[in-house]
Each structure stands twice: as C-alpha cells, then as structure tokens.
Amino acid sequence: MAQISQHALETAVKQYRDPYLGKDLYELGAVKSLTADESGKVTVMIELPYPSKGIAGALKELLTNALDDVEGVESVDAHVGQRIHSHKGQKDIQSVPGVKNIIAVASGKGGVGKSTTAVNLALALHAEGARVGILDADIYGPSIGMMLGVPEGKRPDTRENKYFVPMEAHGLQANSMAFVVTDKTPMVWRGPMVSGAVMQLLQQTLWNELDYLILDMPPGTGDIQLTIAQKVPVTGAVIVTTPQDIALLDGKKGIEMFRKVEIPVLGVVENMSVHICSNCGHEEPLFGHGGGERIAEEYDTTLLGQLPLHMTIREQTDGGRPSVVAEPDSEVARRYKDIARRVGAELSTRERNLTGSISSVSVTEH
Questions:
Q1: Fewest CB atoms within 10 Å of the CB: 33, 180, 202, 285?
Q2: Domain coordinates of the chain in residue numbers?
Q3: Which CATH class, in words, describes the domain spanning 6-84?
Q4: Where's the MIP18 family-like domain (predicted)?
Q5: Positive or negative, the Cα torsion across 238, 28, 56, 297?
Q6: Does domain 99-355 have CATH number 3.40.50.300?
Q7: 110 is in an annotated binding site
Q8: C-alpha dihedral sign at 195, 200, 201, 203
Q9: Is the dihedral of CA 84, 86, 88, 89 positive or negative?
Q10: Does the annotation flag 231 for ligand binding?
Q11: Please, which pLDDT band fits residue 342 given cuts at 50, 70 and 90?
Q12: What is the three-class DSSP state of 353?
C-alpha cells in the first residue's frame, strides 16, 4: 500500500474553517494529533478552545469526509473535544478559587431581559459541554432562584459556618442573595453594602471547578455596578439591550463602564428584536430594527445574537424551566446555544491566565 502523504492529510484538515473564529484548525492550535498507520487508518484528535458540543458531530463528519478523499486512506477515526482555558481578568485582582472565567451579563437599564439572558446563556454553555455556575448579583431584584426552579425558602448548605455550598439546578451551580434572605426582606442598602454582599457571596461560595461563572449584574451603570466591576475579576462582559433607542443609549453606557475598568466587552445580545404572534406566527419589530447591529458596529464589538419577544420564553423562565432546558431543540434554544458558542469563542482569543487552574478537557464526539 502506498504511503499516505502527511501533507495531503493536513491540507484536508485545513479545509475546515471554524465558523466562530474564522480560522482553520491548525491556526487555532486545535489539531492535537493527525496520524496514519500502515493499514490506511487515519486518526485525528481535535480540541476546540470553546464550548462546542453542538457542532462537534458536524465537525467530525466533515473531517471524516475530507480525510476519506485523501489517496490511500481506508478509514478515519476522528475525535472532537474541547479545552476551556482560564483567561485574565482586570489587573491585580485575585482570581476566585474554583472559577476559571467570570462573565458579567449587564444592561444599562432594567426591563430588557438581562436575567433571562443570563440564565439561558448559563444553561446553553452547560449544554455545550462546559462546567457552569451563576451568581445573582442583582441584589435588589434577585430572580435567578425562581428562574431555575429552586423551591422558595430552600437554603444552601454551609461549611464551617463560613462557606456556602452552591445550589444545583439544571446542571448549574447557583447562589443568590434570595437564597439567604426571605422575599419579605427589602434590601434597603446603600451602595457599599451591596457591593460588599456581592463580594461575600462570590468569595464565600465553594464553586466546584467552573469553566464559567455567569454574573447577573444589577441593571444600570451607577456606583454599585462600577464598584462590582472594579472588585470582581471579570474576564469578559455581555451587554443585553433591546432595539429601542433609549435602551441602546443605556447599552452604550454599559459598554463605556466596562471599558473604563478594562473589562473586554465580548458582545451585545439584542433581546425582543421581533415580536412573534403566538396565534399566527407573524413577526413584527415592535421596538425598532437593527439597533444591536449599530451599537456593536459603533463600539467595534460583536452582535452575539438576537432573541424574539415571545410569550413562551417568559412563561418557561417564570415556571423555573428556561427555554434551553424546557425545549432544547426549539429555535429559541438554538439561538441561545449559538450565542454561548460565540461568547466562548470570543473569550478564547483573550490573554490566558497562566496562574489559574488547569484547563478542563472533555471529548464530546468519538
């Protein structure tokens, strides 16, 4: 049997360009091994740098077909996995034990679906193969517990009377001020108390080897938000907005705030981009059109995705089973998973934190 050309194999693999990073697998450093034995069997090992379970099967098939066409190849054994690295937060802020990356989900104003986006993004990252936690930093209006279906009144376990054990819900590790106070306790706190409470929740929770911790920020861009952004080692931020001009204006303030404290903005999620009629399916842009694209272009960031204004998103989230887990194969869930891959891919291009914890590896397709 003629010897298989290594150059031909590598050329075949290079045909695939990553849809989120726009580079071939060699440019990404994703090809861990590519070998051929005397029987004509080719084995390829791929590790993508972001949560990618949803595209692993398609990538495996594309690689198999491309390598099958190389002269002398009799069979192909393709393995596609992922390796999530720890990336740097702001200067001189100590990383949180058990957490590789913290992603802040923020909005310039309330009422744009920030918490719904935060929860579904966390669930989508988990569905794509990452270890994920969520911290409800929205002290005045904590809603993550209800959205994740955590029973009212349930309290987290503690260790040594000092540390919280995060709640488990739909595969996520979660903590919230709502878990340690009752609904009837109004948070009549000044700014320093709020940021102090967030830091306490963050640092005194026993996070267990998280690839990503989603931080659901309080809405707005005031002193509380700025203080949290300065004290928490955030590796990237996601801005949630709607197409309305006033929401876009506030979204811009959010981007400016993160830039001020040197936190990279990974992109913008445009919520309520179109209204879908629950009776006839007709789509109409009630709040305007193209706002998310304009703000992303103006600030040289990415439009991560657009979510429709649809009753089922609210109903499912209010019922404790957000769209990504309630209907994992729906168009809405597909959009959230696409956003999750974009967020992970964008973060993978940032400077690594070499003092952080060891990268996790998971093989998702054999």
A1: 33
A2: 6-84, 99-355
A3: alpha beta
A4: 8-77
A5: positive
A6: yes
A7: yes
A8: positive
A9: positive
A10: no
A11: very high
A12: coil
